[in-house]
Design brief:
Length: about 350
Amino acid sequence: MNRRRNYPISTLVSLSLGALLVLGTAHAQESLDQLHKKALQEGGSLTFYGTLAQINAEKVLPAFEKRFPGLKVNHVDATADKLIARAITEARGGKTFVDVFQLNLENLGQANDQGLLVDRLPPESAAYPANLKGSYYVATDLQFIIAAWNTNLVKKDEEPKQFEDFVDARWKGRLIAEPRDVELLVGLKQKYGSEEKAVTILKQIAVNNVEFHKGHSELAEFLVAGQGALCVTCYAHHFPTRMKRGAPLNFMLTEGMGNVIAVAMAKNAPHPSTALLWYRWVLTEEGQKAMALGGRIPAHPKVEPTDKVRPEKIYPLTVADYKEFPRYNKLWKEIFKLR
């Protein structure tokens, strides 16, 4: 005797979503080489809206084209806000030219809010931790905010192990930072699961009279010149090259706050198979190694960057964090008395 089961609405919704995900994986069962053949049938072109700097793009994009002969990447190079504005204008005009986006997570969130992205994850996303992916994106690379110091001005026994170390009075008048790096506040909130705890720590650090200067490259040069002992918010990738040249520097790799750059497929992409091919390839270990050789810090847990700049513990920002940025920014300025 067959019995009809009465599922609650929430369960039915979950089942429907599950069915959609299964349907959405039809392409995922194909190998990349099979998908390559379909991409060639679409004309062999991929329109890529991404913020890869030219020096990075010159390594990463040819690696894709070499792996998949006959395909050519049309890289529309602009700032993230201009790329999003362009895509929105095109969509409102009833046209879609972009196949795939690869942008800062903040901007991808804006694109998703405008209904420009496909809500799908490829099978390669399984290799990534939950905090580096969402329903419509997966991180491709990260930019880390860490602490760094001049080794002539910071003794070995003073070297910090975590951001909380800067509450110590020994750092009074010795710290420099970037005035826009609200990521430190957000990262500490993630670390403790408490905004109140994060604010308390930052207020204690503020007592040590942090000196603020705009520009992360400038901050690194201040350290090289001994114009500051320690930078609380510097970019990790700015230091290996300077250290190889003999600069008296070192930086903290026990933990770091991560800005996420992620990939997503465009809804109504003119070349959907080609877009999916990039989406999947750039997340493979092969694609991530190409990102590393191109000078980026890969997000794949098993792929190391060319220089050791990825912290042991990572606190990456989320889409929700970026949406809260105006409030965080106000709080940050109040803590450090910034204008």
